[in-house]
Design goal:
Elements: H1 3-12, E1 17-21, E2 27-30, H2 33-38, H3 42-45, H4 59-70, E3 77-85, E4 91-99, E5 109-115, H5 117-139, E6 143-148, E7 154-157, H6 160-165, H7 169-174, H8 188-199, E8 204-210, E9 218-229, E10 232-242, H9 244-281, H10 286-314, E11 320-323, H11 324-338, E12 343-347, E13 353-356, H12 360-373, E14 381-388, E15 392-398, H13 405-412, H14 427-437, E16 441-445, E17 452-458
Parallel strand pairs: 12-14
Antiparallel strand pairs: 1-2, 1-5, 3-4, 4-5, 6-7, 6-10, 8-9, 9-10, 11-13, 14-15, 15-17, 16-17
């Protein structure tokens, strides 16, 4: 076998397409890799012009690069990326390397090309994702950030940082530790401890005050996670959300709670006490005094439920494991003591692990108590059932007066409190908010036999992780 024939065999086994192209772009030789990469048999390409196969958007750039290379004085080599039309009509991305080296035995310039379609597709996808993330981070009001593991380098922060923290991005970029200057001095110890926890691989969820420009009246909620690779923290990322309005509402609710707890309840207590005295001492005014007393007692009851609502909305909203059977047992016992004439039964398994906020007990008591008090029977009947399948369900069924649709819509979340209708009481609002914060749902039915059936459905929890409910 001649030397040229041996070289041809070697070229045919090469992974890249090897072609000889004359100065006009005509293909004088191409190896067998052209069929594997492009779908053409070598004989189909020889004699054709390579520029006829290029994508119209790439032709000029490739022709310019090729001409510049072969016309350069002295040795010149380069590469160019472009799209080449394959035999099936698809566009294949090629990276071609070329030089101006020629040899009398070669009929043209050597061009070596490899398929880089996968690489280009991945790069395009990455650029698209990067663009979308940049658009998202630049438009969101949340502060998105990322530091290295020891907080010595700021890897990313979006523009929202400046308006929330009151500090220039350039400042914190130049000196990452300077972001601590934007935190209220009283909150710094907790933030530093949280930073140490994150560097040690622990997640963080906290709230603190920032922004000296607002006299540190801006509150942020921060959730952060360590990024762990091969058992080692390599980056720390998280977000900070401005919750100043929420904290302000909580303070307002707290003031209302104090007002209800002290001033209003005390004043109503005085009214009720005097109404009782009038009932006892002035027979001719007893009926009117009784109306005043009952109205005052109703207001006291509303005030107490208002406190429950405020505590549910302003207290810790953390969901923790609960045993719904224990909650139901305690609630039934409380209502039985208040209404001994009522016939209240409980049917439940040994345990029903679920999750809920701390106001769950008050919500269950409210449902049972409502079933008793809104019943014209001398001995109201209330059946409480707890069941467990893919969810945990509490059912309260009674034989009382049907709940008006406007009231039931409060429980199911289909009605918003507005200026036209506030419902007859706050009890159902308390139930609704507690169940919603516990990630549950409520359904209200009117059985054909009469009465009401209310079902509260809550998520299940692993029985092994549910601690005894001693409350």
């Amino acid at each position: 076998m001649s030397r040229s024939a041996s070289l041809g065999v070697l070229l045919d086994h090469a992974q890249d397409t090897i072609a000889l192209i004359d100065a006009d772009g005509s293909i004088t030789y191409v190896n067998d890799a052209a069929e594997r990469i492009l779908g053409y048999k070598p004989a189909e390409l020889v004699g054709t012009n390579t520029f006829d196969y290029l994508h119209p958007d790439d032709v000029d750039a490739v022709r310019e690069r090729f001409t510049e290379t072969i016309n350069s004085e002295g040795y010149t080599a380069g590469s160019v990326d472009y799209r080449f039309r394959a035999a099936d009509g698809a566009w294949v991305w090629l990276e071609s390397r070329m030089s101006n080296v020629t040899d009398r035995s070669l009929d043209g310039y050597v061009v070596s090309s490899r398929d880089i379609t996968d690489r280009v597709t991945a790069e395009q996808a990455c650029r698209t994702m990067t663009t979308r993330l940049q658009e998202l981070s630049s438009t969101t009001s949340d502060v998105l950030w990322m530091f290295d593991a020891d907080w010595s380098e700021l890897l990313f922060v979006n523009p929202a940082y400046e308006s929330v923290f009151g500090q220039s991005v350039d400042i914190v970029d130049a000196d990452p530790a300077s972001f601590l200057d934007a935190i209220h001095p009283d909150d710094l110890p907790a933030v530093r401890e949280a930073m140490n926890c994150l560097s040690a691989g622990q997640s963080v969820d906290m709230e603190y005050r920032v922004n000296p420009q607002t006299n540190y009246t801006t509150w942020v909620w921060v959730q952060a996670e360590p990024i762990v690779q091969d058992g080692e923290v390599v980056r720390i990322t998280g977000f900070a959300r401005d919750i100043t309005d929420r904290r302000r509402r909580e303070r307002q609710l707290s003031v209302m709670d104090n007002l209800l707890r002290h001033n209003i309840r005390n004043d109503i207590g005085v009214i009720v006490g005097n109404a009782e005295l009038i009932e006892e001492t002035v027979p001719e005014a007893a009926d009117r005094a009784a109306v005043i007393r009952r109205t005052g007692e109703s207001l006291l009851d509303s005030a107490e439920k208002q406190r429950g609502v405020i505590e549910a909305l302003t207290g810790p909203a953390a969901i923790r494991p609960r045993d719904l059977v224990a909650v139901a047992e305690d609630a039934v016992e409380i209502v039985r003591e208040q209404y001994p004439a009522a016939n209240i039964s409980l049917s439940a398994p040994d345990t029903a692990p679920t999750c809920g906020i701390d106001g769950l007990e008050a919500a269950v008591v409210e449902l049972i108590e409502n079933a008793v008090t809104h019943n014209e029977a001398t001995q109201p009947t209330v059946e409480v059932t707890v069941s467990v399948d893919d969810r945990v369900t509490l059912t309260v069924e009674d034989d009382g007066i049907a709940i008006p649709s406007m009231e039931s819509s409060v429980l199911t979340g289909d009605h918003e409190m507005d200026a036209l209708y506030h419902s007859s009481g706050l009890g159902f609002w308390l139930v609704y908010w507690v169940v919603e914060l516990s990630e549950g749902s409520i359904a209200v039915e009117a059985p054909a036999s009469g009465g009401n059936r209310i079902q509260v459905t809550l998520p299940t929890a692993d029985a092994a992780t549910a601690p005894p409910d001693d409350e």
